[in-house]
Amino acid sequence: MKMDNVTYTYPINDVPTVADVTVRVSLASRVACVGPNGAGKSTMIKLLTGEIEPEVGDVWKHPNARVAYVAQHAFHHIEKHLNKTANEYIRWRYNGGDDKEALVKDTMVLTEEEEARIRKPIAIKHPEFKDKNDNPIEMKLVIEKLTGIRRESKKVKEYEVKFHGRSDDMNIFLNEMFLEKNGFEKLIKNVDEKIAARAGLYQRPLTQANVEKHLEDVGLDKEFGTHYRMKSLSGGQKVKVVIAASMWNQPHILILDEPTNYLDRESLGALAGAIREFEGGVVMITHNNQFCSALCPETWVMEKNMETGIARLDCQGDAAWMENVMKEKVEFKQVEETVDALGNTVKVKAAAKKLNKKEERKLAKLKAARKKAGIEEEDDDDWGEQ
Q1: Which among 178, 175, 176, 173 has a CA at the least distance from the CA of 161?
Q2: In a domain, 256, yes or no
Q3: Is the pLDDT of residue 225 over 60?
Q4: pLDDT tens digits, residue range 82-108?
Q5: Can you give the pTM of this predicted structure?
Q6: Is residue 88 part of a domain?
Q7: For residue 363, which of 382, 349, 344 has the smallest C-alpha distance?
Q8: Of the residues 158, 173, 195, the one at which a domain ends
Q9: Where are the beta strands (DSSP E) in the chain?
């Protein structure tokens, strides 16, 4: 994720809340965002996550990246669902493979003007559009929707579109730049978000038993997670629900705005330990200096000029720390078992180990020797494990 020269002004203000902000976030990031209240920290994070749109500058997220965002006022994530249990809320949120919370951002929802623009006919040249003499022609058509199917052709992303008044067999793929030029940028982000979310859910069916286990892993006992309405939970328990829900789709980057609110000492220690072990990137806003200083070698300092009222960002930290972290070997944990929709426990087969060149040559010789000796070959899928 990255932002370049981003400026944003709230409608009620005369001067920008944040100005000329440039940041980078990767899978190796461990960032603490600090500064006094009202300095613009939460505004900057909302710009980075797409909750609000900048007036000036660019915000970019890799289309396959999954980002979990726990806002400062964490309860706003669940305030419309307090009559649900935590288990019911997570299953509602991810039912169908999409994260419903991720699809209601300003950067994903069309304005009336944007809606009107994409309903206008567009001149399209495409190899499939030909006259009766088989000559290429240009056609003016209205795109009804993006179907949600994406492919990559010569390193260019293409999205399948359906035209208004035409059947599905007339659908074609159009490239990303053409669609963005004609006002479909938010709909492209919508498709990317859904594809990324589904990729994070493939190993774990959305069942009551799996969600119950997930909530227990975040420290919420199944009695409170499955049998209590969320309106009956304490503040600390609600924060655990929000964190659990954000982590369900296995995000690459976790953004926490004041994560220490409402958590007791034991829960804070568990959160710190989890952040240390997490294999993705972490950005956190916190006033708890002891908590963030032990975890984050990089610091974003937001400072507001008292005369102008404009907040600017100062990035501090060891410039070489990220490069050193990237060189470290990362051991990914394999899920050993899961629960299917019928409640059956299913063993998850370990992924085959990728062989290096030396191991491949050794394996080829072994296969040849076995074949010469008349020994039956093992399944190819088992060779990596051996």
Answers
A1: 173
A2: yes
A3: yes
A4: 999 999 999 999 887 778 877 667 677
A5: 0.70
A6: yes
A7: 382
A8: 195
A9: 2-8, 18-24, 30-34, 56-60, 67-70, 122-130, 136-141, 143-153, 156-163, 172-175, 253-257, 281-285, 298-304, 311-317, 337-339, 345-347
